[in-house]
Amino acid sequence: MSDEERERHRSSDWFEGEGVNGFIHRSWMKNQGHPDRMFNGRPVIGICQTFSDLTPCNGHFREIAEFVKRGVYEAGGLPVEFPVMSLGETIVRPTTMLYRNLVSMDVEESIRANPLDGVVLLCGCDKTTPALLMGAASVDLPTIVVSGGPMLTGRMRGRPLGSGTDVFRLSEEVRAGSMSVAEFRRSESCMSRSAGHCNTMGTASTMASIVESLGLGLPGNAALPAVDSRRRVLAHDSGRRVVELVREGVRMSDIVTRQAIENAVIVNAALAGSTNAIVHLLALAGRLDIPLELAELDHIAAGIPAIVDVQPSGRFLMEDFFEAGGIPAVMQVLRDALHGDALTVVGTVRERAALAERWDDEVVRDLDRPVVPAPTLAVLHGNLAPDGAVIKASAASPELLVHTGPAVVFESMDDLERRYVTGDGITVDSVLVLRGAGPRGYPGMPELGNLPLPPHLLRQGVRDMVRISDARMSGTAFGTVVLHVAPEAAVGGPLGLVREGDLIALDVPARRLELLVDAEELERRRATATSAEIEDGGGYAALYRAHVTQADTGADFDFLRGRRGSEVHGDNH
Ligand code: FES
Ligand code: MG
């Protein structure tokens, strides 16, 4: 390649120089068999790889990466794949959320420290998406996301099985005595029958949908099944497109603007998406210095009902959603509510919505024939949650959305199991409270919020009760479950002051969550409260506890907020 043909990019700082460093940067690339012209003077594209045998949902990503590479080569770039820590939702203990911020640091530092001009993020299982988005946002190179796509629909005895959602449903059937353990075991292999992430509108599908509605993925990215050949084409096209984004100088922050975030919030409401998305969007906004308050999320999506009939709030699964038109169809239905001028990795939102096609108006509904009326996700405030709490109203029982009942308080899941042996004093009107499960308290804010119901009430046919905690819940879960109470009990939040039998009033239409105990009594309790000592075993968990922020600001680390850019100072030799 002649000097005139050589393009100048960020990677040129590594590969163009004379002297020892230029020699070292080039020479060791050559040991992989790259001719000089392939990396020196072309866009170098990092493929951020979250494949792991321990993240089953991302198990096909080595293959997907090969298709991304084809596209990068086609456009005249050099693809380089690099691994980051991967988080398998089904396996990692105590909770993947403990490590989301750690992965984001891995991603951020890996991108910045290397000769990359653009990145393709391979995101699938729940936390891999927000972690990669957050890390990439803090560096802000041209960025495109290829999601892993959902698993194929599982079936048992001719009936579809939804990932997660049916696990919770069937396990309650077992606990109620209406399903045998053997049958429950048999359903395991029916539920997960291909590569890909959960096939319900759980956190993974929600986050993939958010990627597409933010404009960071190509149209169809969210819902195309993991094993569909067209996802490989999408991966190829994404590789090709990111090279063009580098040449056009389009950075992640040109795409993920306040308008884009509002679009994502609106789409999320229409999907009745995972409550986890709220925490992740707040964290992402923080990385890009986009002001965003928890309460605003409710206002931005005001009046948007659930129009996508997918579990857990609806009936169908992601494969059906894909066949119905997927996120492009949803954006078309929502076009008047969305910011049409918002830029995406290909065209504006308005242009994409105009090109979309909807094949099934039962799965993707019109706004005037919703699956569940607005609000789908509601933000609550009150003396029990001064900084806010969240409820997925679309997955709750309508008759419990306004409910006052006496608290039954659990300090831990072991405590709950002990109480459930007799179930004494727990009635269908009780409000089940779990505390000490927030970001700092657990630590990591696990998905425990959809507390199991007491067996004696299950046997009576009860299938939902009001539950309140500072924890999160799986995006695939359902029930009248108030989550993310902030501040959490472990940092002195009023959730820690609730006593057995106190009346708690939930009023979703009024967005209120109140502990019906007068302020003086609460002050008395606060004065005598002893906060439980959290064991300090050092290591990463100590860093986490020292720096994690509360759920209402995204549970990011305080020192990670903001964009630090792609500049790197100092040479390595
Ligand atoms: Fe990985 Fe649900 S467990 S997406
Ligand atoms: Mg999940």
How does the SSE layout of this entry go?
Elements: H1 12-15, H2 19-30, H3 36-39, E1 44-49, H4 61-74, E2 78-83, H5 97-113, E3 118-123, H6 128-139, E4 143-147, E5 154-156, E6 159-161, H7 165-176, H8 181-191, H9 203-214, H10 229-248, H11 252-255, H12 258-271, H13 276-287, H14 294-300, H15 318-324, H16 326-333, H17 349-355, E7 377-382, E8 385-392, E9 402-410, H18 413-422, E10 431-434, H19 455-459, E11 467-469, E12 481-486, E13 503-507, E14 512-515, H20 519-528, H21 539-547
Parallel strand pairs: 1-2, 1-3, 3-4, 9-10, 10-11, 11-12
Antiparallel strand pairs: 5-6, 7-8, 8-12, 9-13, 13-14
Magnesium ion binds next to loops.
Radius of gyration (CA) equals: 24 Å
Which percent range describes the beta-strand content?
5-15%
Provide a count of the helices: 21
Class from secondary-structure proportions: alpha/beta
Beta strands, count: 14
Distinct compounds present: FE2/S2 (inorganic) cluster, magnesium ion
Return the average pLDDT rounded to an integer. Answer: 96
Q: Quaternary status of these chains?
A: single chain
Dominant shape: globular
Largest sheet: 8 strands, mixed
Domain count: 2
- Low-pLDDT sequence parts: none
> What percent of the residues sit in helical stretches (DSSP H or I)?
25-40%
User: What spatial order of strands do you see in the largest sheet?
Assistant: 7-8-12-11-10-9-13-14
Distance between the termini: 27 Å
Domain Dihydroxy-acid/6-phosphogluconate dehydratase C-terminal: 362-555
Protein name: Dihydroxy-acid dehydratase
Domain Dihydroxy-acid/6-phosphogluconate dehydratase N-terminal: 42-348
Keywords: 2Fe-2S, Amino-acid biosynthesis, Branched-chain amino acid biosynthesis, Iron, Iron-sulfur, Lyase, Metal-binding
